[in-house]
Amino acid sequence: MADKETTRFVHLTVELVVEVHDNTALSGAALERIAEDAENGPGVLGEDRTHAGTPAGEDPAEALAYLVDPLDLVAGVPGVELVQAGWSCERIDYDPDALEWDLDEEDGPVNGTETTP
User: What percent of the chain has pLDDT over 70?
Assistant: First the structure.
């Protein structure tokens, strides 16, 4: 499966930094989604609902993690099916001028070839 011509799987990496302007609105949206999921069947039910609701109501990172769905990134893309996804959110110290946050820098090879500046 290592052959570029035969593999069907693509590892898509997305890194986002968001600025939260309204913690109350974000937490409220997450708690509303948790309540909807509990009412509509598959999703967070029963005791799990309480465990998800508490952090989402108190921590903007937890609320955002509950609201973001990787399926939304590929839904509607022709010929693509989401096979596996994982994501997390955490509070960070962000300095847009720091080199560590320069998202334009390439971390490695693109399309199997090394890029040079």
Answer: 72
